[in-house]
Amino acid sequence: MQNFKDIKISQKLGGSYAIIIILVIILSAISFGSMVKLKNVFSEYQSTAQTSLLLSEMSRYLGNARREIFSYRAAPDDTKQKIIENNINNLLALAPKIEVVTVG
Q1: Residue 82 and residue 104: Cα distance in Å, rounded?
Q2: Is 10 helix (H, G, I), strand (E, B) or coil?
Q3: Segment holding 95, helix H or strand E
Q4: Considering only CA atoms, which of 102, 101, 86, 97 is closest in space to residue 53?
Q5: DSSP readout, 12-45?
Q6: Going by C-beta distance under 8 Å and a sequence separation of 6 or more, which residues neighbour residue 104?
Q7: Short-list 94, 93, 87, CA closest to 51
Q8: What distance in Å separates the CA atoms of residue 48 and residue 84, rounded to the nearest whole number?
Q9: What is the DSSP letter of 102?
Q10: Which class for 68: exposed (0-12), middle (13-18), buried (19 or more C-beta within 10 A)?
């Protein structure tokens, strides 16, 4: 086996470039694997965010309907009744869009 000092400069440079290329290939493989995992995590996040937005909108319609019901009880009125029906119909229209999320 030769000492490092005895190896030609061209072989030293070629060996260094080979080591750098191998390290770059390994780093690229690790990065690619991480990106694939990140894509899956982002897809899960996107689904959860959409469900959260739907639930928020449903909560808004439910809150509006409840306020109008209290108002209707105090002073019955046909326009209040239509507002209540509209809020409940909007709420029911959103219900089928929600996906059930299971953990585990």
Answers
A1: 43
A2: helix
A3: none
A4: 97
A5: HHHHHHHHHHHHHHHHHHHHHHHHHHHHHHHHHH
A6: none
A7: 94
A8: 29
A9: -
A10: buried
**Among 72, 68, 64, which residue's Cα sits nearest to residue 90?**
64
Dihedral sign computed on CA atoms, order 71, 76, 77, 80: positive
How crowded is the C-beta side of 20, counted as CA atoms within 13 Å?
6
Specify the pLDDT at position 94: 84
Give the amino acid at 52: S
Please tell me the distance from the alpha carbon of residue 57 to that of residue 92, in angstroms, as a whole number.
11
Task: Give tens-digit pLDDT for 20-60.
Answer: 999 999 999 999 999 988 988 888 888 888 888 888 988 99
Q: What is the DSSP string of 40-94?
A: HHHHHHHHHHHHHHHHHHHHHHHHHHHHHHHHHHHS--HHHHHHHHHHHHHHHHH
